[in-house]
Amino acid sequence: MKVAPWPQELIDRYRAQGLWRGETFDDVLRQRAADPQVATRTAVVDATTSLTYAELDEHVGRLAAGLVALGVGRDDRVLLQIPNQAEYVIVVFALFRMGALPVFGLPAHRENELVGIAGAADAVAIVSPRRIGAVDHRALAESVAAQVPSVRHLIDVDDLASVSADPIEHARSDPSEMAFLQLSGGSTGIPKLIPRTHDDYLYSVIRSNEVCGVTADTVYLATLPVAHNFPMSSPGILGALYAGGTVALTESPAPSVAWEMVQRAGVTMTGLVPPLARLWTETAEAGTDFDLSTLRTVLVGGARCPDELARRIGPALGVTLQQVFGMAEGLVCYTRLDDPEDVVTSTQGRPMSDADELRLVTEDGEIVTDGPGFLETQGPYTIRAYWADRSPESFAPDGWYRTGDVVELTPEGNMLVRGRGGDRINRGGEKVSAEQLEEELLAHPLVRDAIVVAVADKFLGERTCAYVIPADPEQPPTLPVLRKFVREAGLAEWKLPDVVKVIDGFPETGVGKVSRKQLRELLAQN
Ligand code: J2J
Q1: Alpha carbons 239 and 225: distance in angstroms, whole number
Q2: Structural domain that includes position 78
Q3: Boundaries of each AMP-binding enzyme C-terminal domain copy (predicted)?
């Protein structure tokens, strides 16, 4: 399936420079499984399962055939809501093999998000477990299917055997076409769909491997939900598999669970959001009996890592820190393994590729040379439009992606991420749309008006604060009431308001017509 194309001149350049190699993800797995040096190595390990590359390939072949028999076709979209378990890798590569397109839903998504995503993607199937903890995911999938007519199949990830069949031949996918849909952490409620091609995504994985030193000896631990672009590809599970290394998966990032896996699988590398990096650092500083000596590199990103924390991570965990500033739309920046200490602990790194192009602009699109400014980018792994584009304003007229991030560049070219407009709250790496939450709150009968802003939080970096004007001042809505209301509207748990402040009016902005954006900015300053 085609994606919004890069200009021909860039296509020619990326190919001529060997950045786009004409390889597919299925080619990669087939080659690893066919290589006697790699076939018997451990590809994937989780709490209960361990698979060699040959075994992974076998499971993938059987599931791919089973999906075809079920009626899933090439280019069909399949929504995944799978926790971190070995089957994740089997399902994704089976879809790659038979040419259907995974859509990377998160286990934390609820009805509201899933209906939006499945509807926008016209998904034909949902793959999810029966339950995760107290949540009945089967019932969730059923209610999505009842609302989205394209959804014809509900597949239980814990019973893939019942779908599998004897392997068959499949047509090879076109490396320049869409491989899957990633989800944006965008400023609208329902995530936008990000079409990534085999060519562009594989390049980002291969280049990430170079920058992060991933080899066949790497054991990468995914503790963050693996659907996220960060643990998927920076360098993530796909980086480890590309290199013929090992992917370890845990469903919990808690030290007691994740460190048991570090010890058992000999984990060498992992990726964490700042709140988890803090938890790991403080737990290690307090003293631990777990042996973390195999761990060499910890990547931290998704939200700004405070310098104070960045300085403690390396010593506490006995690792080299790499900061990573990335986005599912493309551009990924890393600090380098041989960067001086102060660059690693106080910047968010620089673009991984020389072919990444950057510019900083004012709100009106004027170029600023020294910043701070809004970051715009184009390059060999940055998209030029969302799929079924609902937000052309995210792209400049010449196709550059408007990241929305305000950054400054150091004289050496490293990024200092300063924040972004008030429309999106970065809650420790999980993004919350102020606009979506406001809309949900406005639907509550006790709420006359609401504006959602970020407030600083030591652990998460930012939390959501809803300023609410009550419909009846005698009966102001409380935090538990509003949280319950938003939860029942089917929103993911991380989007519920953290703080509610009841006020009798919004501050004056001094401008005739007051935009919510201006109000958010004003309230955020208080
Ligand atoms: C400040 N803000 C950051 C950082 C991301 C690797 C790592 C992260 C993501 C990711 C990713 C930040 N400091 N170090 O896809 O491959 C904020 C920015 C950015 C947005 C993207 C990867 N690292 N951010 O977080 O698509 O605002 O990707 O535009 O979820 O997160 O969010 P997302």
Answers
A1: 16
A2: 25-40+52-172
A3: 437-513
